[in-house]
Design a protein that fits this description.
Elements lengths: L1 H17 L2 E3 L10 E5 L6 H8 L4 E6 L1 H4 L2 H13 L3 E3 L7 H14 L3 E4 L11 E2 L5 H9 L3 E7 L1 H4 L14 E4 L15 H19 L3 E2 L3 H55 L1
Parallel strand pairs: 1-8, 2-5, 2-7, 3-4, 3-5, 6-9
Antiparallel strand pairs: 7-8
Length: 274
């Protein structure tokens, strides 16, 4: 019910305010199971893609969207539950990943579309990062469902990470690639090398569709590195400001001493003249 309501209300609003474009929608089958594998640039990805394609798609969403306290947290949880998203715990809790995989397989067994962000999190800088081995490949090999690569374009400009109010005047897009068939690997979902091969092939297609620069590390590692670099830069900035302040204080002290010496010399001169 909520999903249909979103399609009726949110989709027209997105089209009016952002005029998003979409290419390759014919690559999504009109019926039957398929896996949507997309890059992830912005929180708004979760609005644009489901709202603009004809069929319903169920994405995995991080558990924080469902259990964050406060009014904003409750509203976010209501939205994701309403559109049928699946929470996945990324904290490393044992069994959480298996539960997410079982839920994904159940979606596909019903002949529906299942969506996943192989990077596991939003890109911190607009680049495409290494896909995580596990969910995507295992579900594809276990079910035989085709994988459809998708590239979200410029959604990070519409709503940069951490920004609540979107930027208007930017026209984002969606580019949908041809389905990838991995039936040749059926029954090999426990072979980690096969899982990596499948994941890398999907990521290559997403890179080709999106035009993003590819970085062969995980996005989570990149986020940590960016945070560490920022922390280091902030520390260096504070140290530089402290040194500059000390230098100014020393200069002011020297200038004050120089003025005092000049005043004393002038006073001594006046005394001598008298």
């Amino acid at each position: 019910m909520f999903y249909r309501l979103m399609k009726m209300i949110v989709a027209p609003l997105l089209r009016i305010f952002f005029r998003p474009w979409i290419e390759g929608e014919e690559n999504i089958p009109t019926e039957g199971a398929a896996i949507i594998a997309s890059n992830h640039l912005s929180f708004s990805d979760s609005f644009f893609f489901p709202a603009l394609i004809k069929r319903r798609v169920t994405f995995i969403a991080k558990a924080e969207y469902f259990n964050t306290p406060g009014l904003k947290g409750r509203l976010t949880a209501a939205f994701f539950k309403g559109v049928g998203q699946l929470p996945v715990d990324r904290s490393g809790v044992r069994g959480a990943g298996e539960a997410a995989i079982r839920s994904a397989i159940a979606v596909l067994e019903r002949g529906e579309l299942f969506g996943v962000y192989p990077e596991g999190t939003r890109s911190p800088d607009g680049k495409l990062y290494r896909g995580k081995v596990g969910g995507l490949a295992r579900v594809a090999l276990a079910t035989g469902a085709p994988v459809i690569p998708v590239a979200m374009i410029d959604t990070e400009k519409v709503q940069p990470p951490g920004q609540v109010v979107p930027n208007f005047g930017i026209r984002p897009g969606i580019r949908i690639g041809r389905p990838l068939d991995f039936s040749r690997y059926h029954g090999m979902e426990n072979d980690r090398f096969i899982l990596r091969s499948v994941t890398d092939e999907v990521m290559y297609e997403i890179m080709r569709l999106s035009g993003q620069e590819y970085v062969d590390i995980y996005a989570t590692a990149a986020k940590r590195q960016i945070a560490d670099d920022k922390k280091k830069a902030d520390a260096e900035r504070r140290a530089a400001e402290k040194a500059e302040k000390a230098e100014r204080a020393e200069a002011e002290k020297a200038e004050k001493a120089e003025r005092a010496e000049a005043e004393k010399a002038e006073k001594d001169k006046e005394t001598g003249s008298a």
